[in-house]
């Protein structure tokens, strides 16, 4: 149970970080196209 919770928490954190990076890249692409 503890290992599963740890893995789930770690995966969620990694996904959140990856999503943030993807959002930043998308914003940069949109801004570059608009400008």
TrEMBL record:
Top-level taxon: Eukaryota
Protein name stated in the entry: Uncharacterized protein
Provide the species name.
Answer: Aureobasidium mustum
């Amino acid at each position: 149970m503890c290992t599963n919770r740890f893995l789930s928490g770690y995966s969620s954190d990694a996904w959140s970080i990856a999503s943030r990076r993807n959002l930043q890249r998308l914003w940069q692409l949109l801004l570059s196209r608009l400008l």
